[in-house]
Design goal:
single chain; five-stranded antiparallel beta sheet; mainly beta; about 15% helix; four-stranded antiparallel beta sheet; 3 helices; SH3 type barrels; Alpha-Beta Plaits
Length: about 140
């Protein structure tokens, strides 16, 4: 049996789609952390069968838009004195900037290097975004 202690003060990122925990772990740079971090992969879940969990014994500034874009089903628990102080449920953000790069070679972002890559959510059910400048489509599943 695997035992991971509870977090006294910090963050638990829960309900991550199985196999995607490493993406969030790497995005947050947790491999270089000076504090305790646990990445639990393929844990059993009553809701979704299998899930990943990240436990962080520290309080970090998290970009909820990016995390919601990576996996809109995750929940973030803020822990104080081993109790959940706040639970945050994420969703796909309506607009993302500089998270996705437009792949259309004729898009203005290919020429203007300092121009932000801006995408708007057009289909929440399928996780589809469109480039503000050229309407190139991007699906979250392509990530």
């Amino acid at each position: 049996m695997l035992t991971i202690n509870s977090v006294r003060n910090g963050i638990v990122i829960d309900h991550i789609k199985a196999g995607h925990g490493i993406k969030i772990f790497n995005y947050l740079g947790l491999d270089n952390a000076e504090y305790s971090v646990a990445l639990i992969m393929n844990a059993e879940s009553k809701k979704c069968g299998k899930k990943d969990i990240i436990k962080i014994e520290n309080n970090l500034e998290l970009d909820l838009k990016v995390l919601g874009f990576i996996d809109p089903n995750i929940t973030i628990d803020i822990i104080e004195d081993e109790q959940i102080k706040e639970k945050i449920k994420l969703k796909l953000p309506e607009k993302v900037e500089n998270i996705i790069k437009c792949k259309n070679p004729r898009c203005i972002t290919s020429v203007e290097r300092d121009l932000a890559h801006v995408f708007y959510l057009t289909d929440e059910e399928h996780g589809e975004y469109r480039c503000l400048y050229c309407d190139e489509t991007y699906r979250v599943s392509d990530m």
